[in-house]
Amino acid sequence: MKTRFQGPEASPGFLMWRAALAWQRDIAAALEPVGLTHSQFVLLACTQWLEEQGDGASQVMIAAQAGMDVKTASQVLRRLERAGLVSRQPDPKDARARIVTTTAAGREVGASATHLVEDADEAYFAVMPHLREALLRDAGVVVRGPAVQPNEETDVSIGRSASSKISGDAAGPTEAAAPSGSRSVR
Question: Cβ distance 18 to 25 under 8 Å?
Fold first, then answer.
């Protein structure tokens, strides 16, 4: 195959893919004690964060906060609802929308899961502090896009008022993808 790189280890995109898979493996292992998948954790945490902002959290808002498509978010939120961690109720302002709230059990599991994920993040990035700092400094542009700044227009586009264990990732990282000291090295 013709490539501009000397091999996979010289491709920044391939290395990012491998590092992300190793990190995801660590997060999945960290979440095992609370019985959540990574997607479930992200949506539970986003729901709780949006609730704390006081606006109420529609499924569309939660999906946008998580960077997930609405259909997938709806399926994961349905699983969280069956597990008793969130409640989904019709939005009184929009019959097509659902407002999602965390239950007491969801807040408890969410708090435990957040602690576990933050510990896993700390351990993973402890061996690569420069990567952590680069992500915190630069990745927001990738996540939000270069021209997007929080404002009334972006708030409205995700449904805010202007005034106010999932499968499918069967492939796992190889041991070489994980930084030394990471739990992904087995």
Answer: no
